[in-house]
Amino acid sequence: MANMHSERLKAYARKALREGLLPIRRQVRSAAALCFVVCAVLLVLNDLLPFPPPGERILYDPTDWSLLFSPRQPLPARPPALAGEGQGMGGLSSMQPPVELLLYKVRPGDSMGTIASKLGVSVDTLSSMNRVQGQGVHTVIVGELLKVPSQDGIPVALAGDFDAFCEKYKLVPDEVLSANSLTRSDLHEGMVLFLPRVQHKGAELALITGTLVAMPLRGYESSPFGRRSDPITGLPSRHTGVDIAAPMGSPIRSSTDGTVITARYDSMLGNYVEIRGFAGYSYVYGHMRVIRTSVGVHVNRGQLIGLVGDTGYATGPHLHFEVRRYGVPLNPSNFLYGIR
Predict the structure, then answer these.
(1) Residue 8 CA to its chain's centroid (Å)
(2) pLDDT(193) > 50
(3) 20-30 CB burial, b ≥16 within 10 A, e <16
C-alpha cells in the first residue's frame, strides 16, 4: 500500500514538473525574442539618431565619470604649406592646434578652483572664459554651463595692428590664427581672439581670480546691492552698495591698494572715503564714525582707514561699501569672498 502511494506521488510530481517547465520555456523563448527585437531597433536608431547628437562630442572625465559636451565647429581647410614658406605669411599654421571649446555642467560642491584642477586648466583661464573681469568668480551655480578651452589661454579683443597685438603678448601671429582657426582676411577690430598660453599677471591676475578685493571689516551683510525698501521711508529705492553691520568703532581697512581721492562728510554717506584702485575701479566706505586717512595718501590693502559709525543717512552702525568702475556702481558681492 505504501509503495503504491509512493508511486502515485512520484507520478504526480513528474506530471507537475512537465507542465510547469513548459510555460517557463515559453517565457524564456519570448524574452529572448523580445531582447533580439529591442537590440535590432536600437541598432537601427543608432544609425539614424546617433548619441550624442552630431553637434556634440563626449569627453571622458576620469575624475568623476562626468560627461562633457563639445560643440563641433567646422574648421576651414588648412592650405598646404609651401616649400620654404616662412612665418608672417598669413593663413593657418601647424605650429598651434586649434582651440576646442568644451562645456562643463556645474555640480553640487564645485567651485572655479576645483573645476579648473579637475579639467587641467588654470583658474585664470577658466575665469577669463566665464566671468567679466573676475566678477562672481567666487560663486558658481549648480547646472551652469562653463566654457572650458582645451588649452590654457585667455580671450582678448583685437585692438590695432594684428602683428603689434601679437607682439605685445609675445606670440607669433600664425599661431594665434591657427589656434582660432582664422586667416588674416577674417580679422577685424574688436573681435575676441583666444591667446594660447597667455595668462594674466599681477593685479590683473588678482582681479580675474577674485583675490584683488578683501573684506574691509568683520561683520555681516545687513542690506544687499540693488532694489530694496528705503530703511527710513520704506519707499522703493536702489542701493548702490552693500551694508556690512558691525559694532560701533570697529576698524575699517582698505580692501585694495590704491590712492585716497576723497575723504570728507556727505549728507547721505556721512564721513566717507573713496580710494582709486586698479583698472578704473574705486571703492567707497561710508557712514564712518572717524576717518583715519586723507586725500592723496597711498594706502595698502588691509591698512586702517576709519572706524564704523552711523553718520549721514543711517539707522545704526554699519559700513556702506561700494565698488565702482569709472563711476558706475557694481555689486560688491561679486568681488568679495566670504560676505554673509
Answers:
(1) 79
(2) yes
(3) eeeeeeeeeee
| Res 186 pLDDT > 80 | yes
What distance in Å separates the CA atoms of residue 124 and residue 320, rounded to the nearest whole number?
A: 30
Q: What gap in Å lies between CA 242 and CA 195, rounded to an integer?
A: 36
**CA atoms of 54 and 250, how far apart (whole Å):** 60
pLDDT at 34: 78
Q: What are phi and psi of 4, to 5 degrees?
A: -65, -40
Phi/psi-derived region of residue 36, left when phi > 0, alpha when psi is between -120 and 50, beta in every other case: alpha
- Whole-prediction pTM value? 0.66
Coil, strand or helix at 105: strand
Report which of 139, 117, 118 is spatially closest to residue 130, judged by C-alpha positions. 139
Q: Which residues pair with 322 in a beta bridge?
A: 284
Question: Please, how many CA atoms are within 13 Å of residue 123, restricted to the half-sphere of its CB?
Answer: 19
Which range is least confidently modeled, 20-24, 135-139, 154-158, 160-164? 20-24
Domains of the chain, CATH where assigned: 56-72+92-208 (no CATH), 220-334 (2.70.70.10)
